[in-house]
Amino acid sequence: MKATKKEAKMTAKQVSRKTSKLAEKAGKGAGKLDIKWQKALAQKEELIKKLKGQLVEKEKALKEAKKSFLDKAKESLLEWKEKAEGEIKLRAEKLAGQKDSLLEKLKKQVADKENLLRQGEETLKEAMDSAKKEVSAIKEKTDQTLMEWKTRAEAEYKRLREELEKKAQPLGDKVRELEEYRKKAEMKIAELQSRAKEYVSKAGSGVEERQGILTFKGGPMTLLGPEVKVGGKAPDFKAVDTGMQLATLDSFRGKIKIISSVPSLDTPVCDMETRRFNEEAGKLPDNVVVLTVSMDLPFAQKRWCAAAGVEKVKTLSDYQGQSFGLAYGVVIKELKLLARAVFIVDDQDIVRYIEIVPEVTKEPDYDRVLNAVKALL
Questions:
Q1: pLDDT tens digits for 202-242?
Q2: Which CATH number applies to 217-376: 3.40.30.10, 2.60.40.1090, 2.60.120.200, 3.90.1150.10?
Q3: Exposed (0-12), middle (13-18) or buried (19+): which is 212, by Cβ within 10 Å?
Q4: Burial (CB count within 10 angstroms: exposed 0-12, middle 13-18, buried 19+), residue 254
Q5: Which of 270, 291, 313, 316 is flagged as catalytic?
Q6: Catalytic residue flag (residue 270)
């Protein structure tokens, strides 16, 4: 037991010594670790400083690269800008040249049309002068003939009266008979004179005049041209489409034709009417064509159709000779425009429906027109 306690004491001392040695050794190790730690910190600071320097260098290089890139981009943009401006200038010069060429072409076309119109006016004037001369000659001849008849009648009356005066009473009845004959002759002469004046009046214009059919803003108007009747053959005509091409009744052979005549597409009522017929035309079969005729120039009709989006209605201009208006009896004498009217002509060119609107500023009866067309389908 004693040996065991001694051994235990010795062991405790050894442990204490060992512990001291270990503590000393640990202290030395800690010192070494502290030195290493300080060295590591210094290396860290040095590395951080080096990295900061490298970062500054890279930022500087990046800044310079960015500036170089921006300078190059700016140069490229300037080059592109100059190139684009040059191309735009070339295109502008080219377009200006084309514009001048087109303007010259249009001016020439307008000049040609004006010359054509002037020639037409001169031809019409010559025809009117010739007609006036013929009417004057007819009137002079008629007056001369009537005067001769009157002179002969007066001479015959005088001769018979002298003979009757010689025979006196036995010829009293004959005198009375001759007196009655004289009165009848005078009445006949007066009638012939009236008819001659009427003929001269009609021959002066060469066109039939019709009154009491329509008004314009309440004022009575006169229609020029014959009356077209339902069941009759549709009159032919010559008009011009928006492409300055001739259009006649035969141009629409084999189709049912809704022909709407209007004063001018540039007026509110005509605008509404043509838009309505354009809308209805889209609902009708292909064998039905809708025509709108006016005295507007073809150029004005084309411009109006484009602005209004009208594609189903075909517009025709009657400006050259009023061929349609005079053939269908819808020229307004006082306005030199077409009356508002609707004609339906079947595929055999027979007139099936007529509506001359009594007041020019009113619209036609669309329902009646459409029902009349549907009855032909």
A1: 433 578 999 999 999 999 999 999 999 999 999 999 999 99
A2: 3.40.30.10
A3: exposed
A4: exposed
A5: 270
A6: yes
